[in-house]
Design goal:
By secondary structure, the protein is α/β, with parallel strands linked by helices. The chain is built from 11 helices and 10 strands. The structure holds (2R)-3-sulfolactic acid. The site of (2R)-3-sulfolactic acid has 13 residues, from loops. Keywords: Hydrolase, Magnesium.
Length: about 240
C-alpha cells in the first residue's frame, strides 16, 4: 500500500485516480457525516453547489429528507440544519437522507468521487478507516484534506497522520508506506499532538473561527479519536452510506 496525503482537494493529481480515496474534514463535515450515519441517517448525499442540492432534494419526500447547508461556519438561510454534529440526533436524522453542502468538506468528497472506493474520515472514526485499509489493502490510497478555501488546515493533516500512523507496525515501515513528503509530515504532526488534539484544534485557524461562533463543544467532540465504529462509503456518485466494520 502506498499512501499519499494531499492538504486540499486542489492539490490532488487530475490525471489519475487512486484505488481508495479518503476525504477528511475534521472541522466539521466528515465528523458530522460519521455522526449522522451512526444516528441512523439513511445516507448522506454531498453537494458542492447549494442550487444543485435544492433541486435534487426536491425530488425526495419532504418527511424523509434533511437539508444541511453551511457557509463560513453558519447555517445557510432556509436550510434545516447547519453542520454541527450535535444536530444529528437519532430523532432528527434517523431514516432520513441528509442532503449536505458545506464550504470545503463536500468539495473534497466531490473531487475524489471517481476513485474506486471513496471513504469519509474524521478523528472520531479513525479506527474504522484503518481497519478497512488493513482488510482490503488497496495499492494506492489518497487522504485528501479539505482545508479552508484552498489553504492548508492543521486538523485535517493531523487526522491523515493519525490514520497513517496506525498503519505502521514498526516506525521503519514509513519508508514503505509514505507515497509523498506530506505523509511523513502528517505522521510527525500526529506524533507531536496525539495526546493533545483539542489544543491543536484550538490553534487551527478554522478552530478559532468556530470558537468565535461559540462552538466550543463541537471542537471537543471533533477532537476525540475512535469514538464511532462507522465507515462512510460512497455507494453511488456523491451518496455515502454506513458500512459497519
Ligand atoms: O468547510 C466545511 O466543509 C465545513 O466543515 C466548515 S464548518 O466547520 O461547518 O464551519
Amino acid at each position: 500500500m502506498k499512501l499519499f496525503v494531499y492538504h486540499t482537494p486542489e492539490l490532488t493529481p487530475t490525471d489519475t485516480v487512486p484505488d481508495c480515496a479518503i476525504a477528511v474534514d475534521v472541522l466539521r463535515a466528515t465528523t458530522t457525516i460519521v455522526t449522522a450515519l451512526a444516528a441512523g441517517a439513511e445516507a448522506v448525499q454531498a453537494f458542492s453547489d447549494l442550487e444543485k442540492l435544492l433541486q435534487a432534494s426536491e425530488a425526495w419526500p419532504a418527511e424523509r429528507r434533511i437539508r444541511v447547508g453551511e457557509r463560513g461556519g453558519q447555517t445557510v438561510a432556509g436550510f434545516d440544519m447547519g453542520n454541527s454534529p450535535f444536530d444529528c440526533t437519532p430523532e432528527r436524522v434517523g431514516g432520513r437522507r441528509i442532503f449536505m453542502s458545506t464550504t470545503n468538506g463536500t468539495r473534497s468528497l466531490q473531487r475524489v468521487e471517481m476513485a474506486k472506493t471513496v471513504l469519509a474520515a474524521a478523528l472520531i472514526n479513525r479506527q474504522a478507516v484503518v481497519q478497512h485499509l488493513q482488510a482490503h489493502q488497496p495499492n494506492t490510497v489518497w487522504i485528501v484534506g479539505s482545508g479552508w478555501e484552498g489553504s492548508y488546515s492543521l486538523e485535517d493533516t493531523v487526522c491523515a497522520g493519525a490514520i497513517a500512523h496506525s498503519l505502521l507496525s514498526h516506525p521503519e515501515d514509513i519508508n514503505q508506506l509514505a507515497g509523498n513528503d506530506e505523509t511523513v509530515a502528517a505522521i510527525a504532526l500526529y506524533q507531536q499532538y496525539q495526546d493533545n488534539l483539542l489544543s491543536l484544534l484550538h490553534q487551527a485557524s478554522h478552530g478559532k473561527r468556530l470558537l468565535k461562533l461559540d462552538r466550543h463543544e463541537d471542537l471537543k467532540y471533533c477532537a476525540q479519536t475512535d469514538l464511532l465504529d462507522v465507515l462512510p462509503v460512497q455507494r453511488e456518485l456523491g451518496v455515502l452510506v454506513s458500512h459497519r466494520n
